[in-house]
Write a structure and sequence with these properties.
four-stranded antiparallel β-sheet, Jelly Rolls, globular, 133 residues, 47% strand, histone binding, phosphoprotein, nucleus, Nucleoplasmin_core_dom, acetylation
Length: 133
């Protein structure tokens, strides 16, 4: 986890890109902590898109009196990523987990050759039917 405040407005999570591992960072909770004022605290995630351009996306807008905590249900990100307090003075605490997988073991998909006939039938999508009026 990390904490964003008026004096520490950003935190960057980096990994060694030269290693032979895939990294996943997942955000679980963003919450205001002791000493927070009743003001809007906007937390942004800054990363890179598929064209390697920097992109900032707000993920939380917290206010002590109405929403001091937000569950992000393990919102997955690919490092490097920066968390930035775009508005407010915090303190805002971010918590989550970091998973490291060896690239050779990171295959999440099964080979189609390994599927039985029943599994192949289940894999086909049902046709789309018109809505009943």
């Amino acid at each position: 986890g990390c904490e964003l405040t008026a004096s520490t407005k950003s935190y960057t999570f980096q990994v060694d890109e030269k290693d032979d591992f895939d990294h996943i960072l997942a955000l679980s909770v963003v919450c205001l902590t002791d000493g927070a004022k009743d003001e809007c605290n906007v937390v942004e995630v800054v990363g890179r898109n598929h064209e390697n351009q920097e992109i900032a996306v707000p993920v939380a807008n917290l206010k002590l009196s109405c929403q001091p905590l937000l569950s992000l249900d393990n919102f997955k990100l690919q490092p490097p990523v920066t968390f930035r307090l775009a508005a407010g003075s915090g303190p805002v605490h971010l918590a989550g987990w970091h998973r490291i997988m060896h690239r050779e073991d990171a295959s999440f998909e099964e080979d189609d050759d390994d599927l039985s006939e029943d599994e192949e039938e289940e894999k086909e999508l049902a046709p789309i039917m018109p809505a009943k009026k």
